[in-house]
Amino acid sequence: MIPNLDAGAAMRETMDAYSNMRVHMKSPQYKAVADWIEALVVQHQINMISCGKDKLPDAQVRLKQMIALRASMVETGGASTGYTFD
User: Fold this and answer.
1) What's the mean per-residue pLDDT of the chain?
2) What is the reported pTM?
3) Helical packing angle, 28-48 and 56-74, nearest 10°
4) What DSSP line would sit under 49-81, residue for residue?
5) Residue 74, Cα to own-chain centre: how many angstroms?
6) Is the pLDDT of residue 62 over 60?
7) Given phi > 0 = left and psi -120 to 50 = alpha, else beta, which region is 63?
């Protein structure tokens, strides 16, 4: 992977990759990946019950990222939530 410092080019590459990925949306492999991410979300939610207070903010960020990634894969127009996190 070569670092890209041009924001416009990076966005174009991201959207091209996203479009290429969504072509396979109806395939069993695509569904398996979405199901796997959903299982990771559930696992992280369960682990948050017992994680220490010092680790909770990082766990919440990872959880938010995984939820946004899954949304970008399966929801109509979900790509807008899959790239930027607060």
Assistant:
1) 85
2) 0.72
3) 160
4) TTS-TTTHHHHHHHHHHHHHHHHHHHSTTGGGG
5) 10
6) yes
7) alpha
